Amino acid sequence: MRENYLTVKGYGESEIIISKSRFLTYIERAEAEEDAIAFIDSIKKRHQNATHNCSAYIIGEHDHIQKANDDGEPSGTAGVPMLEVLKKQGLKDTVVVVTRYFGGIKLGGGGLIRAYGKATTEGLMAAQIVERKLHHFMKVAIDYTWLGKVENEIRGSSYTLEEIRYLEGVEIIVSVSKEEEEQFRNWITDITNGQATITFENAQFIEFIVR
After folding, report:
1. Stated pTM of the model
2. How far apart are CA 137 and CA 140, in angstroms?
3. Is the distance from CB of 148 to CB of 32 less than 8 angstroms?
């Protein structure tokens, strides 16, 4: 299972005009190929009268699904440069559609490659890029006499206190990045003189905006 990776925060759109042609970019997260295809189809329906609806997506832990479609533009001038932008930015599980309304001025092969690449980059800025990091939610079980000290120490640390459960004893749930789990266990053991029981509860991804 992957532990951290880059993807888009969610839906985003942008528009640029190059030599009188309108380039409308639509971005979305897609964790399965059917989701990417459905998104592309939805944009095509929205812009049925557009000159082109070019698309690209990259999906999977090891980027094993990569597709690019020029939708009538000269081969390799639209979908491929769009896909290359996704790959160069290290993104996963991302789909992009660039809709073009022709403005009457031909851009040539090089011009199209630059235009579709720029449109994709602008769309990514609108969607925002996030890093998803796998965090372990750790349960710290302690006696009530330790609550004040342990809570204060956790709140003053880089770890995130997620929940406090007031039961027969106290259970404090803390999210810890996977690579810091052992360090966290040792830290809690030290500040409680070994009086805490520390167990793994579950794991989930937490997102941080990168750009």
Report:
1. 0.85
2. 10
3. no
